[in-house]
Design goal:
This protein has 94 residues and is an alpha/beta fold. The chain has helices spanning 11-20, 49-61, 74-89, and strands spanning 3-6, 25-27, 40-44, 68-72.
């Protein structure tokens, strides 16, 4: 699967995700992404303010049936990664 991360300048999310998924292409703006090339796109933004508005506008512009769009913030991403790590560390090893 080919996917893109659109950071909207939010580098801390890219710094966390890129080492986990080095195959991802990273863009600062949705205008730089050729949507047809990707199976899914991760849009990142801070909550509220100008960046939040950019995220909402971006979601509206990529709405289509064949594309999965994930939206995350630094806070929610850290929660997801923490849950993922706890799930792996909680498994018993035989």
């Amino acid at each position: 699967m080919k996917f893109a991360i659109v950071s909207f300048g939010l580098r801390d999310i890219v710094d966390v995700v890129l080492p986990l998924y080095p195959q991802a292409d990273v863009f600062n703006s949705l205008d730089d992404v050729n949507i047809e090339e990707y199976d899914f796109i991760v849009l990142t933004s801070e909550l509220g303010g100008e960046e939040g508005e950019r995220l909402i506008s971006a979601m509206e512009s990529v709405a289509c049936e064949d594309l999965i769009v994930f939206c995350t913030t630094a806070t929610s991403l850290n929660g997801i990664l923490r849950s993922r790590n706890q799930g792996f560390s909680g498994r018993s090893h035989r």
